[in-house]
């Protein structure tokens, strides 16, 4: 899937658009409360961001045309409702043409919409208040979630590489010059990856595995609930709390 539409161009919409654009996807439509724009050849997130910062709105963006109608019902592969709650309801869900709904706002779909999308084989990637959770953990620990573990791992890997380098230099002598031991690009990415992105990727894989294990098909929302409940059960069970 390559073409995607955004309903909402705030923090969630902008940064999601950047990531998708970076990985080769193409934004063909963006909708806000005052205007919707469309360009089948693609909309550059940086250019649109600069225009909005200068003019306070996406209205009049020169590299796209005004779009008449609802962005939620426009042609695309991926639809990202990133503006407000209850954007997708049972009244407009039957007209949605996207193959994947990636929720960006909090609760952009109503409960009855999930059933409609499942019947139409449209995947819904459910959203949660993820960033608030990270902020809570940061405030609780006074450090970004995962940074302690990743810092330890990164430092351990660095000292391991330095140990190998110094051992080779002692073996072959300094007169041969230094023997730099550097990580591969893939290894470097691994040890410097954002802990938040790692956590999100790991959670997504767990949810997909849960969906497959319980034969839930495209119902990733139920899979998310099951995955969360299983984690709670595991913690209580390991703590010796019995369930009746």
From TrEMBL:
Gene Ontology, cellular component aspect: mitochondrion
GO terms under biological process = L-glutamate catabolic process
Query: Which Pfam family, giving just one, matches this sequence?
Result: ELFV_dehydrog
Which GO molecular function, any one, fits this protein according to its record?
glutamate dehydrogenase (NAD+) activity
EC number assigned by the record: 1.4.1.3
Q: Where found?
A: Mitochondrion
Full protein name:
glutamate dehydrogenase [NAD(P)(+)]
Q: Which key words tag this protein in UniProt? A: Mitochondrion, Oxidoreductase
Alphabetized InterPro entries for the sequence: Glu/Leu/Phe/Val/Trp_DH_C, NAD(P)-bd_dom_sf, NAD_bind_Glu_DH
Give the Glutamate/phenylalanine/leucine/valine/L-tryptophan dehydrogenase C-terminal domain ranges. Answer: 1-240
Where it mainly occurs, coarsely classed, is mitochondrion
Q: Which PANTHER family match?
A: GLUTAMATE DEHYDROGENASE, GLUTAMATE DEHYDROGENASE 1, MITOCHONDRIAL
- Assigned protein family: Belongs to the Glu/Leu/Phe/Val dehydrogenases family.
